[in-house]
Description:
With 114 residues, this protein is mainly beta. It has one helix at 30-35, and strands spanning 13-19, 41-48, 61-66, 70-71, 74-75. The strands form two sheets. The protein has a three-stranded antiparallel sheet, with no helix packed on it. A hairpin with a 2-residue loop joins strand 4 (70-71) and strand 5 (74-75). The chain is globular, with a radius of gyration of 16 Å. It starts with 12 loop residues before the first strand and ends in a 39-residue tail after the last strand.
Amino acid sequence: MDWSTGDLSGEGIEESVKTLGQLAGLFKDEAAWRSMDPVTEVYRVRFWRPVPEGTSGGLFWGATILQPGRVGDEYFMTHGHFHAIRDRAEYYATVKGTGRCCLWAKRSTPGARP
């Protein structure tokens, strides 16, 4: 990990790219989202899995590059997620620019949004 650039490189690095077309339902202004080019890159994740997924104590490394842009009044963002094994931690550091990290707690009420 190069902390001056945010680049993650080396043997075994994998990459995933998310485009606007893959992020249906993420942005409030659906009309604005539909009017945009669906192949526009919103973010890219480069990650390293040194041990098989699910290995107790395993630590994965990743770097997310979020592209500048907006859908309506909302800036580009990553798609939130919950971990299959809920007691696993994540660490976030901003290398360049500014942003906001929103943490959600899953509710047990049927139909409730996190």
